[in-house]
Amino acid sequence: MAKTNNRNNRNRNKKGDYGTGFVPRKKEEARDCTYKDGITVKELAEKINKSPADIIKFLFMMGQMVTINNSLDDETIQLIAMQYNVSITKEEEVDENSLEDDVPDNEEDLVPRAPIVTIMGHVDHGKTTLLDNIRKTHVTASEFGGITQHIGAYQVEVKGQRVTFLDTPGHEAFTAMRARGAKMTDIVVIVVAADDGVMPQTKEAIDHSRAAGVPMIVAVNKIDKHNANVDRVYTELADYDLMPEEWGGSTMFAKLSAKQGIGIDSLLEMILLQAEIMELKANPKKAATGTVVEAKLDKGRGPVATLLVQNGTLKTGDMVVAGTCIGRIRKMTDDKGREIKSALPSMPVEIIGLDNVPEAGDHFKAFENEKLARKIADQRAQKKIEEERRSTSAMSFDDLTEQIKQGNVKEVNIIVKADVTGSAEAVKSSMEKVNVDGVKATVIRATAGAISESDIMLANASNAIIYGFNVRPNATIKKLAEESGVTIRLHNIIYKALEELEMMMKGLKAPVFEEVITGQATVKQTYKVSKIGTIAGCMVDDGVIKRTSSVRLIRDGVVIYTGVIGSLQRFKDSVREVNQGYECGLTIERFNDIKEGDVIEAFESQQVVEE
Question: b/e per residue, 293-325, with b = 16+ CB within 10 A?
Fold first, then answer.
């Protein structure tokens, strides 16, 4: 018996007190440490050698409910440090704006720089052919189907002066890339085909250029075609406030044929003239700063990034921070593939040497001090994590109201979508007249049709609010708007929308009554029954359809009818509500024009309780 007890004691000692196979390890004594802004419970626990459960339990006893991934404020961190007798100090952030790179340049150091020009417009209107002719190379042949699939940056020499061109894709699927192109450019050239006129992506290009606040030059292409009509293009663009100089306006128009090489010299002269008016200058004596145009992971070379130097001089061997990525430039090539040792302002280059693939549109800086560079890369990575936790940079309706109240916003960007063009123009005109206490409304897009992905992207890029009149977003667009943090306000009476806008611009909260969408169903089949009318066989795609709800019938994103549900059934039984994923049959009171594919949206008005 004594031998058995000794054996059990030995086993217990090997396995720990609980016989689980886990041997408790004596924890190291906590030491002095530092932390960064936004540190989580888990990260703090690791720093002070405590378990996250201990910290969560302590804060719970202090009346704070937190989880392992919650960020902690400075006061709470110091409270935890006192509890566990730990000395912890906050790492001071490096203010990037105070660095030498962002200090205003001395006037004597500034020299003229090449203008950065973006070619934009509708697909197949001749953007890449125009650029081909300008730089005497052939990109179109190597592109799939002749459509540009990425952003390219190229530098050419015009009359002894350099001009940098960004070729952005014209296809509507690349709206976001086009928006990014407009943000890093000095001048935008809008290409419009004389035989085709103003098309959807032409309008988008104009919207993005205006949102970026850059001057536009219009290139009317394909004038050599037999059905070319230049006056029609002029008239259509005049409707978008792009009035040609020969008609008394201020927009430069160039008539050309990219294929035949006609009128290209005239366009280049306009670009140089516009650049001269803008007096574009940069300081080549300082460390380089600029923007990432595109980036990819190459199997043989690792992360490869195309950078556009906007100020300073970039050299091989420089330590570069691009977004959250860092690395020393091992090799640098120009747009023609030649290896170079340095790049001046407005020059696009391809570099290798970064530790990761940056995102297109990221800001980059060159540093002499590697320690400082790494600190800034870590700081940016932490900020990115914080931004992702907050989900989006787009401003909600209430956030915008609060910012206006505090005097931080003087202009409200708005996108108007309506069922017909007349309504869109009327709403735009009325909204642009609203000016309250120095805060004005700017309509950056007003078009007819359903709210699209392109509208959400533009709203996100320019912090705009989307106002819909007799149009409804489908479930996909709603989800995208929620993920992007874009606010969509839906109305069918103009004065209510203007009232709401005025209240927001005064810094007041949203209306007393708010419409809440409870569910959406798609009509799969229709049945016509005498004395009853049209019964819609539906599948509930989202939320819940209630018997007491008001409904809208939406066809191709446009509201056809607003009314109430006449009857709601599951099989042969009348029901009060039908949830997502279930089928149902319903009728709409006094309305029978229901077709397959229509969307029935159920909604209720709820009173907003003001705090």
Answer: bbbeeeeeeebbbbbbbbbbbbebebbbbbbbb
Residue 466 C-alpha from the chain's centroid: 14
Work out the number of other CB atoms within 10 angstroms of the CB of residue 202.
26
- Alpha-carbon distance of 600 to 534, in angstroms, equals 14
CB proximity list for 521: less than 8 A, separation 6 or greater: 538, 539, 540, 541, 545, 578, 584, 586, 599, 600, 602
Please answer whether residues 258 and 130 qualify as being in contact, where contact means their C-beta atoms are separated by less than 8 angstroms.
Answer: yes
Alpha helices in 88-185 (DSSP H): 127-135, 175-183
For residue 334, give both structure tokens: 């120009």
Cβ atoms of 223 and 332 within 8 Å: the answer is no
In angstroms, the CA 336 to CA 360 distance is 21
Cα–Cα nearest to 73, from 53, 59, 83: 59
Helices (H) and strands (E) in the chain, counts: 15, 31
**If you write DSSP's letter for every residue of 174-208 in order, what string do you get?**
GHHHHHHHHHT-SEEEEEEETTT-S-HHHHHHHHH
Find out whether 226 and 197 touch, Cβ atoms under 8 Å. Answer: no
Question: Considering the entire predicted model, what is its pTM?
Answer: 0.55
Q: How far apart are CA 569 and CA 586, in angstroms?
A: 6
SS3 sequence, 21-72? Answer: CCCCCCCCCCCCEEECCCCEHHHHHHHCCCCHHHHHHHHHHCCCCCCCCCEC
Alpha-carbon gap, residue 263 to 260, rounded angstroms: 9
* Strand ranges for 194-274 from DSSP E: 216-221, 252-255
- Tell me, what DSSP letter sits at residue 173? G
DSSP 516-555: EEEEEEEEEEEEEETTTEEEEEEEEEEEEEETT-EEEEEE
pLDDT in tens, 497-552: 888 888 877 765 444 556 788 999 999 999 988 888 899 999 999 899 998 889 99
Residue 446 has pLDDT above 80, yes or no: yes
Residue type at position 314: L
Express each pLDDT in 551-594 by its tens digit. Answer: 999 988 888 888 899 899 998 888 999 999 999 999 998 888 99
Query: What gap in Å lies between CA 47 and CA 80, rounded to an integer?
Result: 12
Tokens of 91: 């790492």
| H runs (alpha helix) in 362-474 | 370-389, 397-405, 421-432, 453-462
What's the chain's length in residues? 611
For 92-121, give one letter per residue: b (16+ CB within 10 A) or e: eeeeeeebebeeeeeeeebeebbbbbbbbb
Q: Which of 534, 536, 512, 502 is nearest to 522 (CA)?
A: 536
Domains in the chain, ordered, with CATH? 25-90 (no CATH), 112-281 (3.40.50.300), 289-388 (2.40.30.10), 397-511 (3.40.50.10050), 515-607 (2.40.30.10)
CB count in 10 Å sphere of residue 50: 18
Q: What is the DSSP letter of 86?
A: -
Phi, psi of 501 (to 5 degrees): -65, -45
